[in-house]
Amino acid sequence: MPNSITHQLYSSDVLASIALLAILAAIQLILSRALSKRADLTRSVVRRWSANTRNFLMLVALVGLIMIWAPQLRTFALSLTAFAVAVVVAMKELILCLSGSALRTFTRAYSVGDFIELGGTRGEVLDHNLLVTRLGEFERREGSMLATGREVILPHSLLFGTPLRVEAAVAGQLRHTIQLTFEPQGNLFAAQTEIRDAVLSAFEKSGGKEANRVEVALSTSDIGKYRVEIKFPVTPDQVGQTEQAVICTVGNLVHSLRDKRESEADDCIERTMSSGSVLPQKGVI
């Protein structure tokens, strides 16, 4: 009796399944070690190849297991039709995730290292598999590429219900946006050249490159306040440093211009008072 059970075990599909999984696991281990030893590859490239290799081997394992167990599956198919329908309904989200993964693969929508926005969440693609994508989250401020330090798991089913946006990166740099709002005191539009020069100086001092891609625009908010919008190219690891340098420089410049105008106004009033002329009360500059 024990010999018969052993013979059935070794002649069954269980052994074939175990052998298939063991071979694929060994291949994954060998490839991972080989990639980690390549000094000429960047970390982003290594992660991309590791993710693609793992997903391909998982697909091979899935197809192989289906082929191994196909006779048994056919045996149960007729008697479990109603059960299969119920499972499909219950696993609708899982099926959508797998379909979304196929859509991502066939369309080459994005890969590891890309910067995307999906389902209202923006960030860098750290990893993806057959079901989900793992993002390094960016803060939700419009146009910001500043990382929050959190990781977000997004199911691939979102690809069928929400638009996907892929941020264009040039040489690993993204376009980061800052919006600064000031009280409508003085003529800030007349100082546009000074503001742009200050932005370029702060950008270059913080290690920024390609200053020709820096954009500075002035506008007003819905309630009439001055708004300075600044866009500049930057790598994700330098966003915080460059942003703070630009904000501090522009803020100091605007306040110094305001203080200068107020000082000039005070001097004008003093000169007028000393000459005996009468002027209206000083208003907002």
| Global mean pLDDT | 82
Give me the number of helical elements: 8
Number of strands: 8
Task: Using the coordinates above, name the CATH class of the largest domain.
Answer: Alpha Beta
Order of helices and strands: HHHHHHEEEEEEHEEH
Structural write-up:
The radius of gyration is 31 Å and the shape is elongated. It has helices at residues 2-11, 13-36, 43-68, 70-77, 81-90, 92-107, 192-205, 239-275; strands at residues 115-118, 121-128, 132-138, 147-155, 164-167, 174-182, 215-220, 226-234. Helix 2 runs antiparallel to helix 3 and helix 7 packs antiparallel against helix 8. The protein has three domains: 2-78; 91-167, SH3 type barrels (Roll); 174-275, EIF_2_alpha (Alpha-Beta Plaits). The chain is α+β, with helices and mostly antiparallel strands and 285 residues long. A hairpin with a 2-residue loop joins strand 1 and strand 2 (121-128).
Features:
285 residues, alpha+beta, SH3 type barrels, Alpha-Beta Plaits, 3 domains, five-stranded antiparallel β-sheet, three-stranded antiparallel β-sheet, 8 helices, 8 strands, elongated
